[in-house]
């Protein structure tokens, strides 16, 4: 790698993850970037697109699905065998639990994830399944990926660990009526969830914040934390 630091970005084939890789490629410092995607084909397609703008970039596709334990372990073994360490892990992959008419917000926030509202509206996913899936990715999957890759981060002389947070997860602003996601719903029951009602997403991101602190305060104090 000629001294270049190795960075793994999950969910890097689209959305915010794709933009993160672009920002890394735009840096004056050269990095070796592992472009993570649920499928190797999507990761490779993203690299092809990135290479058009950054032809001299050092990008490598890697398959990693944080909902799949076997995929996480396989990705770890690949990085361990080929590189022996990891300098930075950017936990970007996540789910955004949207409801009806929320596609504009998804685009505006550049949040990578499945539009679970469409599956709910189509009867393909129950509310319990939606909540469980949101937590599985934003909390459980992110934790397991970080825990699995910790030994490789600790092999770096200057390891970095990044989590993608959300302003909607703040407990201190959860009662602020000026914040759009805190607007009171119309009277009556059952409530009709709108594009600003994101209880599963907000709750999971709050849970991720606690999980993130666990990793930094306890097992991996040596790693520098970045929250974005």
TrEMBL record:
<dbReference type="InterPro" id="IPR002347">
    <property type="entry name" value="SDR_fam"/>
</dbReference>
<dbReference type="GO" id="GO:0016616">
    <property type="term" value="F:oxidoreductase activity, acting on the CH-OH group of donors, NAD or NADP as acceptor"/>
</dbReference>
<dbReference type="GO" id="GO:0050664">
    <property type="term" value="F:oxidoreductase activity, acting on NAD(P)H, oxygen as acceptor"/>
</dbReference>
<dbReference type="Pfam" id="PF00106">
    <property type="entry name" value="adh_short"/>
</dbReference>
<protein>
    <submittedName>
        <fullName>Uncharacterized protein</fullName>
    </submittedName>
</protein>
<keyword id="KW-0560">Oxidoreductase</keyword>
<comment type="similarity">
    <text>Belongs to the short-chain dehydrogenases/reductases (SDR) family.</text>
</comment>
<dbReference type="InterPro" id="IPR036291">
    <property type="entry name" value="NAD(P)-bd_dom_sf"/>
</dbReference>
């Amino acid at each position: 790698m000629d001294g270049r630091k190795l960075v793994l970005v999950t969910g890097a084939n689209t959305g915010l993850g794709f933009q993160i890789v672009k920002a890394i490629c735009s840096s004056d410092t050269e990095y070796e970037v592992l472009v993570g995607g649920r499928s190797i084909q999507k990761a490779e397609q993203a690299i092809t697109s990135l290479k058009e703008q950054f032809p001299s970039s050092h990008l490598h596709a890697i398959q990693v699905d944080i909902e799949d334990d076997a995929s996480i372990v396989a990705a770890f073994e690949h990085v361990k065998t080929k590189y022996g360490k990891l300098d930075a892990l950017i936990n970007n992959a996540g789910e955004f639990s949207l409801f009806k008419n929320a596609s504009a917000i998804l685009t505006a926030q550049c949040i990578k994830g499945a539009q679970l509202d469409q599956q709910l509206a189509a009867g393909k996913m129950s509310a319990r399944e939606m909540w469980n899936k949101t937590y599985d990715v934003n909390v459980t999957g992110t934790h397991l990926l970080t825990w699995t890759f910790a030994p490789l981060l600790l092999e770096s002389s200057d390891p970095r660990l990044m989590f993608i947070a959300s302003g909607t997860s703040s407990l201190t602003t959860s009662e602020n009526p000026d914040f759009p996601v805190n607007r009171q719903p119309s009277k009556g029951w059952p409530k009709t969830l709108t594009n600003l009602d994101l209880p599963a997403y907000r709750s999971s991101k709050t849970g991720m914040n606690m999980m993130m602190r666990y990793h930094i305060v306890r097992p991996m104090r040596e790693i520098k934390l970045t929250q974005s």
